[in-house]
Amino acid sequence: MTSHHLLPVHTGTVIEDDNLTLGQLCHACGVHADWVISLVEESIIEPQEGDEMHLWRFSGASLVRVRSALRLQRDLGVNLAGIALALDLIEELEQLRTRLKIMGHD
Amino acid sequence: MQYKDYYQIMGLSRSANQAEIKRAYRKLARKYHPDVSKEPDAEAKFKELGEAYEVLKDPQKRAAYDKLGSNWKAGEDFSPPPKWDEGFEFRGGGFTGGDANAFSAFFAQLFGRDGFRPADQVPHGFRVRGQDSHAKIYIDLEDSIQGATRNISLSTPEMDAQGRVQIKHRNLNIKIPKGVKPGQHIRLAGQGDPGLGDGKSGDLLLEIAFNNHPLYRVSGTDIYLDLPVTPWEARLGAKIKIPTPVGTVDLKIPPHSEQGTKLRLKGHGLPAKTPGDFYVVLQIALPPAHSEEAKAAYQKMQHEFDFNPRVSMGV
Q1: What range does the domain containing B189 cover?
Q2: Which of B5, B47, B229, B253 has the fewest Cβ atoms within 10 angstroms?
Q3: Is B29 helix (H, G, I), strand (E, B) or coil?
Q4: Measured between alpha carbons, how far is B47 from B37 in angstroms, rounded to an integer?
Q5: How far apart are alpha carbons A57 and A65 in whole angstroms?
Q6: What is the pLDDT of residues B112-149, one digit of tens each?
Q7: In this structure, what are the phi and psi dihedrals at residue B38, rounded to the nearest 5 degrees?
């Protein structure tokens, strides 16, 4: 028995695809809504549902993209067009790495 | 506290000019950026680099740092000489970028921390919800398939009343929901950064990643298994036992199977509303030919088959 057994067990909720609002996404990433809107305009992240902002719903994957975008801008001074390009290339690279792994060449 | 050699971190000599410092930073930042780099210690290296650049790009901070002298070795136990910063104007707001939260104790001792407000200075009635915090956790494939409770340890930088940053370690027991996929997030309400004033705490967002498994690979909700089979099982067909994350199952290999043939067990992947599939990828294994009998068997095959696998190469 370790002391871990004495700790309470926390039950979280899974962020399913397409259930984050703009406000939740901004708060989760610590960024301003204007900046997230500019990411949507650059099609760096794509909300599901409706054209109106209050109907926008984002996926859990958008969380990862927004935070990467933030770091690329802050750390490397990349502009939005550059961020869009970098994230697409990184994603493609990761898909290729996964495929290599599935083929057993990792 | 350990001395940090910022010039060494950036691969520069102490006489480097500002243009060289900027070039070195840009180059190393691209190399070690955690979003781009696959080097295992990229994140730590990147933080160290950001800290070094924060000091060396600012002529004031750099001059103060240089004044400590060049006799210190990286990692050496260090405490700043009295009044070492006399006459420099970077106290209180010399920060131009970077994530100051991540800087070392060495940096904080020399240059202070910006953007922090000790808890006891929050004006009365002031209320801000705490930031959501983020962490990545690694779980086993079995945890997702069966659901599990896992103990995770998190390190969070926190401020004490004097405004010093300390790394707080805490353990959390968390429930791994059944069917959670790599890349998905689990939100733990109220487990993020504490709020200011009467504000509520933020949430803790855990990004799920899977540990490498000795047998299985996961892609989305699908699971892959490389399965060694004999040449006769592949060619003649067979009913064999195979491992799956939920136990042994029977698998029928159809006759005329090839190396790399993919067989699908529908719905045996990760649990979900539409469960993923389990793929078996056949890997043909050749029996050894050490004994005379085995050699004779291979020789018999050689005579029986008119087989040239290089026919499409024209040889």
Answers
A1: 126-210
A2: B5
A3: helix
A4: 13
A5: 15
A6: 654 333 344 445 556 677 778 888 889 999 999 999 99
A7: -110, 5
Which residues of chain B make contact with A90, given a CB cutoff of 8 A?
A: 35-36
How many whole angstroms separate alpha carbon B138 and alpha carbon B134?
14
- The first and second tokens of residue B194, run together, are 């504490």
Residues of A in contact with B204 (CB under 8 A): 12
- DSSP track, B123-164: PTT-EEPPPPEEEEEEE-HHHHHH-EEEEEEEEEEEE-TTS-
Residue B203 and residue B287 share a domain: no
Query: Which residue has tokens 């400590």?
Result: B68
A-B CB pairs within 8 A amount to 92
Beta bridge partners of A9: B173
Within 10 angstroms of residue B114's Cβ, the number of other Cβ atoms is 15
Sorted by where each starts, the structural domains of chain A and their CATH numbers stand as: 18-102 (1.10.1660.10)
Backbone angles phi, psi at B192, to 5 degrees: -90, -155
A3: Cβ–Cβ under 8 A, 6 or more apart, which residues? none
What is the CATH classification number for the domain harbouring B271? 2.60.260.20
Dump pLDDT digits (tens) for B147-199: 999 888 887 666 666 656 667 788 889 999 999 998 889 999 888 888 877 78
CB contact under 8 A, B99 and A9: no
Q: What is the C-alpha end-to-end distance of chain A, expressed in Å?
A: 38
Contact B254, B233 (CB under 8 A): no
Q: What letter represents residue B170's amino acid?
A: R
**Into how many domains does chain B fold?**
3
What digits encode the pLDDT tens for the residues A53-92? 888 999 888 988 999 999 899 888 899 999 999 999 998 9
A91: left (phi over 0), alpha (psi -120 to 50) or beta: alpha
Chain A contact present for B80, CB below 8 A? no
Read off the DSSP letter of residue B288.
P
**The overall pTM is greater than 0.95:** no
